[in-house]
Amino acid sequence: MLRIRDGGSVDESNIFVSVDYLEGMDKVAMNLGHQQVSAAVTGKALTQSMDCKTCHKEAEASIGSNYMDVSKKYKERRDALSYLQTRIKTGGSGVWGEVTMPAHPKITSDESRQIGLYILSLAGDQEEERSLPTKGTITAESSAPGNMLVITASYTDEGAEGTIPLTGSKSVAIPSSTIQLTEDLKTNNMQAMAFGGMDLMLLNAESGWLELANTSLKGVNALTLTAAWQSAPNLSFDFQIHENTPDGPVVGEATMPAQTGGQGTRFLSLFTGVAGDGPYYVTYKAEEGKELSAIALTGAMFR
Ligand code: HEC
C-alpha cells in the first residue's frame, strides 16, 4: 500500500514493482539490480528538479540533445556512465553542435550517477526494466530450491525545485517451500555436507537443532523431513519444531522409530497449526541409553 504523506498526487510512472527469485536474504539485501532501477527513477526526477529540463527533453528536440539520443549514442560504451557524469559536471560543446551546456560544479557524484543511469536506461533493455502493474496476481515459478520470491516496490517523488527527489522502497520475501540444507543455515550439532550432488545435514550428536529464520509458518500444514542413513539406526529419534528459541513452545513433532537393515530413507511429517513469523527451530534428540548411529536429513519441505 502506497501512501503519500504530504497528500500530493502519485505519478504512476514513478512506481516500480518487480518480482525476482533470489538466493537468500543476503542477496535480497543487496538487490543491486533494483537499486539501479530506482537510481534511474531518482535520476529522472533529478533532471526535472534541476535546470536540465530547460534545455533537455526525454525524447523530443530541445536546445540540448534529447536524452534518448544521448542514451543510444553511448549505450555500448563501457565507460558511458562515468563519461556522462563528467559531461554533466563540466558542460561544454562540440558533440551535438555549437551550443554550450553550462557546467554544474555543485552536482554531487551521486546525483550525476543517478542521472547518468536514468539516461542510459532509456535505450537499455526495456524488457528488464519495465515495472509490473501495481495490482495483480503473481504465479510463482518453480526455481532452484532455497530461492526466495521477492516482490519489491519503490516510489520516487518529483522532488521540489532545488531538493533531491526521495525514493522509498520495500521488499517482501517469500521463501521457497524447500529448505536448502547447506551451511548457510544456523545449526547446532548438525553438519552440512554435500554428498553425491545432494545437500544434507548430518545429525552427529545426541541432540541438536537447525534454525529456520525469516520463515513464517502461516498457511503451512506440515514440515516434511527426509531422513537417510548408510546403516540402519538401532535407536529412535524425536524431531520437534520449536517456536522462537530451540526450547520454545513445541509446534510440531514426529518420532522416527529404530530401523533395521542397511541403507534406507524415511519421510516424517511434523504437523503444525501455528501462524507465527518464527524464528523456528527444528530439533532432534536421539533415544537415550542406546549407541548413537549417525543419520542425515536429506530433505526438508513445507506443505
Ligand atoms: C542551457 C542549456 C542546458 C542546460 C541547463 C543543461 N544542458 Fe545538457 N546540454 C546542453 C547542450 C547544448 C548540450 C550539447 C553539448 C555538446 O554538443 O557537446 C548538452 C549535452 C548534454 C549531454 C550529452 C553530453 C555528450 O557528451 O553527449 C548530457 C548527458 C546532458 N547535457 C545532461 C544535462 C543535465 C543532466 C543537465 C542538468 C543537470 C543539463 N544537461 C543541463 C544544454 C544544456
From TrEMBL:
Keywords: Electron transport, Heme, Iron, Metal-binding, Transport
Domain of life: Bacteria
Domain (Cytochrome c) ranges: 38-123
PROSITE patterns attached to this UniProt entry: CYTC
Name of the protein: Cytochrome c domain-containing protein
Organism whose genome encodes this protein: Maribacter litopenaei
